[in-house]
Amino acid sequence: MAKARSVTGVGVLTTVVLVLVFGNQAFTEWVDRHQPTNTVWGWFLHTLAWPKWAFGPSDNSSAAMRRLLANDLRALLLVLFVAVILALAAKTVTGGAGAFFLGWMALILASALAAFLTAFILSNPSLLSAFHAAESASAYGLFVGWIVGAAVTTAKSAG
Description:
Blueprint: H1 2-22, H2 25-34, H3 40-48, H4 62-89, H5 97-118, H6 127-158
């Protein structure tokens, strides 16, 4: 039981750090202004900045307020879903590659679910736009999830 809690805690903590450090408004604006998407590094930084969150909207329009709410809720749901997935599955994994894939897949699934659900907050929502949001969010999990997977593996082998 203690191993499952430590795995969940480490996975959630890693996700929180990723969201706080790379999803904050200062970092995402810097990436948007200074990193082109046609280089591998620039593309990775844009992917890393996917769970955008901010303290206030860029303007006071209703679309900007909805986008702010959707982005902030998406970042919170990402962390919550990672916690739930890891808490439910951590007991069944013994360690090694299984723990790595558990952490990695938790971020893929959590990001897709968070994006899918929050897509309905935006203006003119549709099921198709929610599917597109989940599709692009799963790329975040696919290319950033290995960090959570490595952290979960470390927690599982240490526990």
